[in-house]
Amino acid sequence: MLQNTQGIVLKTVKYSETSLIAKVYTEQFGIQSYMVNSVRSINARQKAAHWQSLSLLDMVVYHRQSKNIQHIKEVKLAFLFTQLPFDAHKRSIALFLAEILYKTLQEETPNATQFGFLWELIRYIDTTPDSVSNISIAFLLQWTSYIGFFPQDNFFYTDRAIFDLQEGVFTHRIPAHNLYLELPLSDLLHQFINTSITQSHSIHLNRNQRQLLLHALLKYYELHIENFGESRSLPILESLFE
User: Fold this and answer.
1) Could you tell me if residue 22 is inside a domain?
2) Are strands 69-77 and 56-62 parallel, antiparallel or unpaired?
3) Is the distance from CB of 143 to CB of 100 less than 8 angstroms?
4) Quick one: 151 and 73 in the same domain?
């Protein structure tokens, strides 16, 4: 049955010399896998550029509930990137976000609010003239509110300045384990909790603080998502912001 949907490209895998399978987060059907035929041939109807990380697509698809791999009738770019594919920093952020989404988006159930958040975030990353150095941290933090383990903003102050990564709360006691943040990192984390992604550039971090917060938040994900594993794109992201 033919259906219209918008989609966000998360990952592609080579299927043959000219075809690939794309994992796409769709507005109508959640996570889906699509066969993309002859995308790398000389006379390809569908351009390979459509399938880069976080591409925003308008799609006409043949959707069958019983199928693991769906097929596409028509596809076109819903938004033409002007910076993201050509800016090394923004491109590395796109790879990082796509990897995190691939690891955390498992459901086929559609979620319009969640989809809308991601769609607008990707557009913002492409178009913003502001620094994107803090986007990865801001995204990791805000995304937890959609997948179920957003840190509790339980009255952070200097006497309650330790953030327990296992419990997701600020506390005045050093935990028995070593998975926690102290000042100044806990203060910076609290600032991110109370700052929108589009204003995250206003939070001042040095390279070491940015690296430590990124690693801490990825550990936070590991503690709350089974089989989350290590990030393969993180080293690329860190090298570009040195």
Assistant:
1) yes
2) antiparallel
3) yes
4) no
Complete edge-to-edge strand list for the sheet that includes strand 169-171: 169-171, 162-164, 180-181
Spatial contact of 8 and 30, defined as CB atoms under 8 Å apart: no
Domain shared by 215 and 142, yes or no: yes
Q: Let me know: does 189 contact 151? Beta carbons within 8 Å.
A: yes
Domain of 42, CATH number, reads 2.40.50.140
Q: How many residues does the chain have?
A: 242
CA distances, 121 to each of 104, 205, 206 (Å): 17, 21, 24
| CB 53 within 8 Å of CB 10 | yes
The Cα–Cα gap between 57 and 50 comes to 8
User: Which of the listed residues 62, 77, 92 is the one where a domain comes to its end?
Assistant: 77
Residue 85 in domain = no
Domain that holds residue 156: 130-240
Instruction: Say whether both 68 and 140 belong to one domain.
Output: no
Over its length of 242 residues, how does the chain's per-residue pLDDT go in tens digits? Answer: 899 999 999 999 988 878 899 999 999 999 999 999 877 655 555 677 789 999 999 999 999 887 889 999 999 999 999 999 999 999 999 999 999 999 999 877 889 999 999 999 999 999 999 999 999 999 999 999 999 999 876 566 667 789 999 999 998 889 999 999 999 999 999 999 999 999 999 999 999 999 999 999 999 999 999 999 999 898 888 887 66
Residue 78 C-alpha from the chain's centroid: 19
Closest CA to 71 of 19, 14, 109, 107: 19
Query: How many domains does the chain fold into?
Result: 2
